[in-house]
Design a protein that fits this description.
alpha+beta, 3-stranded antiparallel β-sheet, globular
Length: 274
């Protein structure tokens, strides 16, 4: 309350940015979109060699998550969020992503939320995510699933009132830590791997529930024409699209982070050891 929260500290921002949540109270009214087409010519053979050397099964999506985590630590203003019309610096970097429990149309989505420490290696992240995904795809109910099962037993009017109460508590910094820690929408970024379903990347809305200011969708790698040193060439290309809440920081700051993502994803050997 009064600017204090369990998951963040009130950010020191200039007056023109402090007023933005009052002028633009909804996330989706403040969203800005970025689009990238990344050259995977160096990335795919590096990833194949890394997997062969380590015995792992890392994918391009692992690289995207690792790059996102590093960028959010290096560009901390993108790890802010808006709550109660105030801007906060988040405590820690967290990412949420969804995984289909199976490749059937009617298969449910399982969400995974985890912290990304600044000193975590790529190998450690790949190993941890493999375990997290296996658990998410198992028949075991997650803590969130169990909580939702209890909530949905309430009559509709009580469910609506409960959600309204939670939003009020959250806007005043009073939401219970148990709910914030497990809720996948209280996160630094939500990433969707559409490429695993052989789909193109898509622009995605932001969720008003929670405090996630960034959404990233990763499409399938396909051959596409790129201009290389003034020559048109067909190369393996990875499409990525970003949606972000401009209230947390300006577009120039965000564009610089997106440019860093390009450099790192197009040449992982230049920054990932081993």
């Amino acid at each position: 309350m009064f600017g204090r929260r369990r998951d963040g500290t009130l950010a020191r921002v200039p007056p023109y940015r402090r007023i933005l949540p009052f002028l633009i109270p909804r996330r989706n009214d403040a969203m800005v979109l970025f689009d990238q087409q990344l050259d995977m010519t160096l990335t795919q053979p590096w990833l194949a060699a890394w997997n062969q050397r380590t015995g792992s099964h890392a994918t391009v999506f692992h690289l995207v998550l690792y790059a996102l985590g590093r960028v959010l630590h290096e560009r901390p203003h993108l790890n802010r969020f808006v709550a109660g019309r105030r801007i906060y610096d988040r405590h820690g970097v967290f990412m949420t992503f969804a995984a289909k429990k199976s490749m059937r149309d009617d298969a449910p989505l399982a969400t995974v939320k985890r912290a990304f420490p600044a000193d975590e290696t790529f190998a450690a992240m790949v190993a941890a995510l493999t375990t997290d995904i296996q658990l998410a795809r198992s028949d075991a109910l997650s803590k969130v699933d169990k909580e939702l099962d209890l909530i949905f037993r309430l009559p509709a009017f009580l469910l609506s009132a409960s959600i309204s109460l939670l939003r009020w508590l959250d806007s005043h910094g009073l939401a219970p830590r148990a709910l914030i820690d497990d809720d996948p929408m209280y996160t630094s970024v939500f990433a969707a791997n559409l490429g695993s379903l052989q789909l193109a990347s898509a622009y995605h809305h932001l969720f008003e529930h929670g405090n996630c200011p960034l959404f990233c969708t990763v499409g399938a790698i396909t051959p596409a024409p790129l201009v290389i040193d003034g020559t048109l060439e067909v190369r393996p290309t990875l499409p990525i699209r970003y949606t972000y809440d401009e209230r947390i920081e300006d577009g120039f700051y965000a564009a610089s982070a997106v440019a860093t993502m390009r450099r790192r994803l197009e040449d992982p050997a230049a920054w990932i050891e081993g």
